[in-house]
Structures are given as C-alpha cells and as structure tokens.
Write a structure and sequence with these properties.
The complex is a heterodimer of chains A (about 325) and B (about 300). Chain A has about 325 residues and is α/β, with parallel strands linked by helices. Chain A has 2 domains: about 240 residues, P-loop containing nucleotide triphosphate hydrolases (Rossmann fold), CATH 3.40.50; about 80 residues, 3-Layer(aba) Sandwich (Rossmann fold), CATH 3.40.50. Chain A is about 30% helix and about 20% strand. In chain A, helix 8 links the parallel strand 7 and strand 8. The relative contact order of chain A is 0.14. Chain B has about 300 residues and is mostly helical. Chain B has one domain: MetI-like (MetI-like fold, Orthogonal Bundle), CATH 1.10.3720. Chain B is globular. Chain B starts with 11 loop residues before the first helix and ends with a helix. In chain B, about 40% of the residues are buried. The chains are: A alpha/beta (about 325), B mainly alpha (about 300). Chains A and B meet through helix 3, helix 4, helix 6, helix 7 and helix 8 of A and helix 1, helix 7 and helix 8 of B.
C-alpha cells in the first residue's frame, strides 16, 4: 500500500479499487472497474465525466444504496477511517443523512408531492433523533430554510412542493440534506435540472453553506465550468475508472490524460466561433465486458501497444496530480 | 402561477388567498359534478337515508323488533304494521329498521378490519419485493381463486355462526383485492426520486412505507372501498340467509329473508320486504361508489 496508515486516517473519504456490477439479462454490466479517489475534510471534489461513466453509481455505492441485483464486487470505502462496506445496514442508516447526505438531480421529483416542505426537512431530523419532538424539528427546519435565503420561511414551510419553483425546491432539498450538518455532502448534478440563471445562485449557496458547517462536498457534474468555479480538486472518470485527478487548476490548465485533453477541447471556444466543434472520435466502450487494457485506447490518438494489454496504473506528478496513462510511464514514478 | 425564474415566490398573503380560492373552486366543481350525476344523487340520498334510519331507529319504528305477538302472526301490511308481521308475530317494519343497524355495523367492521390488513400486506409486498412479495401475493391469489361468498361461507362455517364470526369471515375474504391494489400503487410510487431521497437521508423501511407510501395509496383504496360496500352487505346477507351469519332473533335482513321462505307463496311480504331493503341499500352504495370514482378522477374534471 502506497500510503501509510496515518495519511489514510486523515482522509474523510477513501475509496479504493471500487468495482460495482449489475447483472442483467444481456450479461453483467461492469459499471465501476477499480475506482480510486480520496476526499479530504472540508474539500470539494468534482467528479466529472460523460453520461454512463459511473459518477452516480460511485455516489450510490458510497451510501451503499446500489439497488439489487447490482452489487459492490470488490474494493474498499473508508469514511473517517471506518470501513463502510463492513458496516451493518442499521449502521448505514445512521450514517446516511446524518454523516453523509446526497442531493439528487431533480429537486421537484425529490420532494414528496403530498407532504408540506417544512415537514420534509423536519423529517431528516426526526429520522436521526427519536427524542426530538415534531414541533422542535419544525422549528429547526424553518431556521434552516431561513439560512438558505428563502424569503419568509414561516410561510414556505407550509407549502407543498408543486407550489415552489425549481430553484426554491432545490434550496429546500439542500436544507433537507444539510440540516443535520453532515460531514460529507454528495451533490449529484444539483443544478442540471435548473435554469442557467439559478444555477449560479444554487452553487454559490451550496458553497457558502458547506463552508460554514465545514462539510466536504463530492460534486458530480458534467459541466466543466461549474467544476472550475466550485471545486478544489477534480477526478475525471471514463468507463468506470478514474483516469485523472488532481487540483482543479492543474487538471483544467494542464491535463495529462488524453481523455481529459479531449474533453476540454470539446468546450466551444469564444475566440474561434467559426471553427467546427470538436468531438472525441469513436464511442464509449460497452461495459458488458470488463475492459482489458486502457478503456480509452480505441479512441485515443496517442495510443500505444501497451495500452491494449494492461490497464495503465496511476502515475503521480507533482502536487497531487495523477493520471492513468502510459504516456507518463517514463517521466514519473508509478503510483 | 407566473414562472418565478429568480427563485422568488409569491408573497405569503397572495399565496394563501390563491390557495383558499383553489380549494373553494375544487369544492364547487365537486358539487357540480355531483349534481350533474343523477344516479350519484340518488345513491347519496339512499345512503344518507340509511344513516338517518340507523341513528333514529327507535323514533321511526313504533314497535319493538323483538316482541312476539303470536296472535298477530303473518298479518298483511296495514296501517298498524306497515310491512306486516312475520311467523312469530313480530313487526317486520321495526325489524327492517333495526336491521339497518346490524347491516351497517357489519359493513363498517369488515371495512375497518379487512381494508387496513389488505393495505398493510400490499404495501409490504410491493415495497420489499422479492421472496416476501411472492409469498404474500401467492397467498392472496389462493384467496382470490375462490368466489368471495364461497370463501366467506367456508370461513363462517369453520368459525361457527354469529355476527362476529361473519364479520371475520367476510374480512378474510375481502383483504386480497386491497392487497393487490395497494401493491400496484406501491410499485408505482416506490421508484420515485422522493422515496430514494428518503433512503438517502437514512429513513428505514418501516418509516418509508408508513409515512410516504401508504398515504399515497389511500385515494384508490377509498374509491375501491366505497365500491365494495354493496358486495360486503350482500355477502353478510348471504351468510345470514344460510344460517352462518347473524342468528335469531337478531333482526338481520338476510336472516329475515330466509325466515320468510316457507311463507313465500301466501305471505309474500315476510321475505320480500327485507329483501327490498337489501336491494335498495346495496344499490345506494354502488351508485355512490361509482359516482365517487368519477368525481375523484382528475380526468373527469377537465370537462
């Protein structure tokens, strides 16, 4: 093992070699194939990648909410040094919502249509504290909503979800997930269902609030702009693996993996408005077979013979920047 | 509502006013739909009449339903005995009036026992899925394989005669259709994001089922229940008729129909009039149930 015990204890979340698979009629889908990343306390880590690369599955796996028949085949998930894969379901229930929370994509779909929003925020508290009275929980819920920049929270708590706008519903959702002051907040594309004008507001709010209650954030997004503004570090995923991770500025300014480079090139450039839009040639590999070699090899313009035979390990560059690509074999020490 | 792209909502007074207004409009629409549906108006009137009869029985019926005047056996309907008298000289009108109490009690008890049981089983089966679902639903299938009346007869025969046992027997025959309905609703609801959100924040299965799934099953369960009341009453009367339900001298309509069989040719009123009571009440519940379904259906409201 590369890191000593002392260093591993420092990380809030330490995910290593995580593999998740979903048996289906057409064969087993290998959704995650050895995902490794770490998240420090109070840090915001962005998880980027295109649709189907395993971002959401990674989030659900951390909460142990992969629904059957999907299962975590191997790997390790440590949260504050505690092995989550060994925890009992009861222990996990205690962790979900109070230590680790998650904001889902569609705020309006994530609120129960027949329950007043205040009661839904209060429910998070009631789930984790059986001694708390409903009334006290409601008070706390209203106080929480007040800190979310919701005007007149006393009135809003009595509304039903359909009476709220999308941005307002997402604020309520954030309140619902942060009212217990968890140590880690997973945000699964929290703004993709919202109007562009509100996206910035919601992100700003999330940033301010998580800083205040010292919550680390795992932000899942395919929007590299959002990532650049919000994250301390990023991990780029491709076909169920993390291909590159490092401080956000380094990864975006100086990408080391051909996939990350390609991804950044797809962003339309203001300077060259008449240039054709760039796209990475080829298609995402089928996850029905475990990928042999580098998953990106068939689409990579710098592909080498080695790429087709073995999955490249992570090569570590200066300042915590890693890329899983054989191009760095000679320049940097392995792992 | 105007789109509130900035995340700002209506101010509180305005919102409250609009909500109150919407509620009144909903009630007014309901009333219009109700009035437009003539059969439902009739059904409602019958059921309201039944409730009135149940509450006011001693004031409506002058005679004691249990008092036997053997000298007045088998009198034809007249001013003194509106529905005539039966083979033991009891006033049939009084017995039909008091019989409404027995009938309504049975129907409500069956609904109060069988419906929650069916709902519980259905929600649990639907939410947990897998082996639990298979076992519970195959059990329900076993019950559904028999006609309700036959099943109720079998259970009543095994439990022994009496109103309490009749209630139990009918409830046992009654839960599976509710279990199916609740299961279907549960399957529909459980894949929603807000159920996932509850799991994400650490809610247990029991909490999710009790406070997030069961309430959403209620509306279809209620509609089904109002449609089923007639069947329950018929089954209860059937059991009474066969001697497996209420026992003499309880003034139960099915039992009274049965008592009058031997006089059917010469003294038609002994059987026929309690039978008419069954007919009218069952019809009332069916008309009302049909109407409730239509009124609660949001698609009907478009018109």
């Amino acid at each position: 093992m590369r890191t000593g015990a002392g260093v591993a204890d420092e990380a809030l979340l330490d995910v290593r070699d995580l593999s998740v698979e979903f048996p289906t009629l057409r064969g087993t889908i290998h959704a995650l194939q050895g995902v490794t990343f770490r998240l420090q306390r109070r840090e915001t880590l962005g998880l980027a990648g295109e649709t189907g690369c395993g971002k959401s599955v990674t989030a659900l796996a951390v909460l142990r909410l992969i629904s059957a028949p999907g299962r975590i085949r191997s790997g390790r998930i440590r949260f504050e040094g505690r092995d989550l894969l060994a925890a009992s379901e009861t222990e996990m229930r205690g962790i979900r919502g109070s230590q680790i929370s998650m904001i889902l994509q569609e705020p309006k779909m994530s609120l129960n249509p027949v329950i007043r929003v205040g009661d839904q925020v209060a429910e998070t508290l009631l789930v984790h504290d059986r001694t708390l009275s409903r009334r006290a929980a409601r008070e706390q819920a209203a106080a929480m909503l007040a800190t979310l920049g919701i005007p007149d929270p006393r009135q809003i708590v009595r509304r039903y979800p359909h009476e709220l706008s999308g941005g307002m519903a997402q604020r309520v959702m954030i309140g619902m997930m942060l009212v217990t002051r968890p140590k880690l907040l997973i945000a699964d594309e929290p703004t993709s269902a919202l109007d562009v004008t509100i996206q910035a507001q919601i992100l700003e709010l999330m940033k301010a609030l998580t800083r205040e209650i010292q919550t680390a954030v795992l932000l899942i997004t395919h929007d590299l702009g959002v990532m650049a503004e919000t994250c301390d570090r990023v991990a780029v995923m491709y076909a169920g693996r993390v291909v590159e991770q490092g401080p956000v500025v380094r990864v975006l300014k100086n990408p080391q993996h051909p996939y990350t480079q390609g991804l950044l090139k797809t962003i339309p450039n203001e300077a060259a408005t008449d240039a054709p839009l760039f796209s990475i040639r080829g298609q995402v590999p089928s996850l029905l077979q475990p990928v042999i070699g580098c998953a990106f090899a068939p689409r990579c313009h710098q592909v080498m013979e080695a790429c087709r035979h073995a999955a490249p390990p992570s090569y570590r560059m200066e300042s915590d920047h890693q890329a899983a690509c054989f191009l760095h074999r000679d320049r940097w020490p392995h792992g | 509502m105007t789109p509130t792209t900035t995340g700002r909502t209506l101010d509180s007074g305005e919102a409250r006013r609009r909500r109150t207004e919407a509620r009144w409009r909903y009630l007014a629409d309901t009333f219009t739909l109700w009035r437009r549906n003539r059969l439902m108006v009739i059904g409602t009137a019958i059921i309201l009449g039944l409730i009135l009869v149940v509450l006011m029985a001693p004031f409506i019926a002058a005679q004691d339903p249990f008092e036997q005047v053997l000298g007045d056996r088998l009198l034809a309907p007249s001013a003194g005995h509106l529905f005539g008298t039966d083979g033991l000289g009891r006033d049939i009108f009084a017995r039909v009036i008091y019989g409404a109490r027995v009938t309504l009690t049975i129907a409500l008890l069956v609904a109060a026992i069988g419906t929650p049981l069916g709902m519980l089983i259905g929600v649990v089966a639907g939410y947990l899925g897998g082996a639990v679902d298979e076992i519970l639903m195959r059990l329900a299938d076993v019950f559904l394989a028999f006609p309700r009346l036959i099943l109720a007869i079998a259970f009543a025969a095994a439990l022994g005669p009496g109103v309490e046992n009749a209630v139990l027997a009918i409830a046992i025959a009654h839960w599976p259709s509710y279990a199916r309905l609740a299961r279907a609703e549960t399957l529909n609801v459980k894949s929603n994001d807000y159920i996932q959100a509850m799991r994400v924040l650490g809610a247990g299965k029991v909490r999710i089922m009790a406070s997030h799934i069961a309430p959403l099953c209620m509306s279809s369960i209620i509609v089904r229940m109002s449609l089923d009341m007639g069947t329950i009453i018929l089954t209860a009367a059937g059991l009474g008729f066969l001697g497996l339900g209420a026992q003499p001298p309880v003034p139960e309509w099915g039992l009274m129909v049965s008592d009058g069989r031997q006089y059917l040719v010469d003294q038609w009123w002994v059987s026929t009039l309690p039978g008419m009571a069954i007919l009218v009440v069952v019809m009332g519940f069916n008309l009302l149930g049909d109407g409730v379904r239509d009124v609660l259906d949001p698609r009907q409201r478009q018109a």
